Structures are given as C-alpha cells and as structure tokens.
Amino acid sequence: MKNKDIIIKNLLEKWVSRIIDKENLEKKLLSGKKLRVKFGIDPTWTTVHIGHAVPILKLREFQDLWHQVVIVIWDATAQVGDTSDKNAERPMLSREQTLENAKDYLSQFWKILDLEKVEVRFNSEWMDKTSFNSVWELAKNFSVAEMLDRDNFSKRYKEGVRISLQEFLYPIMQWYDSVMLNADVELGGNDQYFNLLAGRKLQEAHGQEKQDIMMFHLIEWTDGRKMSKTFFNFVWLHFWAPEMFVKIMEIKDELIMSYFEHCTRMYLEDIEIYKKRLDKGENPRNIKLELAFEIVKMYHWEEKAREAQEYFERVLKEGIVPDEKDIEKIEIQSETGELPLVTLLVKSGLCSNSSEARNALSGNSVKVNNEIQSNPKFIVKLDGKNYTLLQVGKKKFKMVK
Prior knowledge:
alpha/beta, Rossmann fold, Tyrosyl-Transfer RNA Synthetase, Structural Genomics Hypothetical 15.5 Kd Protein In mrcA-pckA Intergenic Region, Chain A, 3 domains, five-stranded mixed sheet, 16 helices, 13 strands, about 45% helix, about 15% strand
C-alpha cells in the first residue's frame, strides 16, 4: 500500500490537466476533512467508454481516501442537453429516457466504484421545484457577453447559427447543482471549463465556500480525434474481453503512455518504468500488450485478461479462426431475417459506421462464414437457430443470429 503523500500526489497530478485551486485542494486533502466530490452525468446515451471512465477512475481515488463521492444525474437538464462541445442544438429527451440511460450508466460504474458508498442524486429533485423567480435570481449572476464567450456559442453566433434561449439556461441549471449539493470539489473534462467555473461563482453568490475544480484531458483515439460516441471511435466498457484487448492493441505507439496514465489505476511512479523501457528502445508492442492486459483486467478480472491476450496472440500470430466458444455471440433484430452486410457489420460492432464497413469490403477484409465478401449490397440471411460467422481483418470476429 502506498503512503498517503504518494496517494495524494497521484490524485492531484495523474491525468489531470488543471486544478482550480490546487493549493487549496491539497490543503483540504492533507487536513483530513471529508470532502464532497461531485461529478455530473448527462445521461444522453446508454453506454460508457474508457474515455468517460477517466473521471470515474479519479473518483475512485477520492473514495480510497474516504471522501464522499456524489454522482448527480442530470435527468432534468439532460432533457435540454449540454452543447459545450456541440455546434448545434441537441434534440430533447424524455424524462423516462434519461432515467433509463442513467440506470445503464450506473450499472457500468460498479466496475470502478464502490457504489454502496456513492451518494447518487438527481437534479430533478430541486429543478422540478425551481420557480421562474428562482431562475431569475440565478440568471442575474451572468451576462449575455459571458455566455457568448463560450467557444461554441461564439462560433455559432458569428456564423448565424441559431442559439436557443434554453441553451443559455442549461448551464445555469447545471451550475446550481453545486449549490444544492454544497460540493467541495467538482470533476469534469476540459470542455466543461466554463460550466465548472460558473459553479464556483454561484456558490459564492449563495454564501458557500467555492468548490475546487479538477479537469482532465480528453482521450485521443488512433484517428487523431477525441474518443467520442459522435465519431464512433471508442472502446466500450461492456466490450467482450478479447474485443477490448484487440481495440487497445490498435492504438498508435505514441499514445501508449497517455493510455497508461488516463486509463489505468497504476501510480505515476510505476508508469514511469514503462516510459523508461520505451526510451531504451524496447519494442512498443511489448509495452502495449501489458497496457491492454492492465485495462482489460480492470474491467473483466485477471483470468479473462489472460484469456483475451492468449486469444489475441493465437489469432494474430497464427492467423486462425478462434474456437466458437471464444467468439462473442449476439442476436440482432430483423423482421425479415435478412440484412445488408454493411448494416450487419455496423450493428454487430465490427465496424464503427457504414463508411468503415464499405472500406473493409472494398479491401477484401470481410468474410461471411469464412468466405470473402466484397459486394456492399450483399444480403445476409439470418435465422433464429444458426449463427453466422462474421470476420473483419485478422482479429475481429462475431457470431450473429
């Protein structure tokens, strides 16, 4: 077990891009005060990828120091949608859909957090009771100029793209959570900088001590863009262990150290050992294998990580089709029992989108029941009894029915 100073140093520095106010937060951590550490979830999707997990891993570090983790589900504000990293309005969701999505999110967080010790709150608790007069009181703390100073709003305003009034109200609703929860610390991505700072401003206006904020770099995928469901370039937490292992092995060599720091629970001093090995000229593939093992172990346990590595080595080195028991089996809904191969590749998760599927087909990288298929209009006949074997490249397999 590491001593407390090393744990706190790791908490304050590992994968953290910026802390406001770092000196103040460090004093609080050393004081022994039990902090309320807030993290908000905008439940607009049903699954979590390893990029989403970055702040969750940090929450676990706070948990390990016996601080109170508070996850606030933005079920009320999610109906509006945060446009912090968007270039247009987002479609509104029903309250029922946001609650279902939140349930899926939390069911995946157990892989990282001790959920029995997490305080879960829904901002509808106070937002549904908030009067127009209350919104008036909150809104007067911010100017239109401050709102338009946000990068995405500024860009849209200059380009004449519509900005609805509700999009201005969204961040005010979100910032109010910090007041209602009396948060000591709030976590978020770099794209949440404006929202996090504004939470401090509202707390101060309500006579509370301003929360410290901790921000994180967004994980980059091998395509050079941030990992995002928008770009379909992610590694889901619920990926089958061999599939997760294969996906991690696909990252560029220059991202290895970033993934060690962002996506594992290892300490900085232990990660430094891998950096030294790379600096000495060791084959990056060896290090990447250990990275993939570490990440898969975290979400699927050590035995499954070992099996996933054996799967990867056997399939890649020997170029063989794995045993049926080692291939994930999934069921896909189809009223007619027939689906275009392009659609099936996307629905099965073997390809991120139709463009990727067509590229794989044109490159003769797709097999259906061990036969190469290159026709994007090829129709696959499915039934409810027998599985169809799909393969993309040397490493990706799924059995569907």
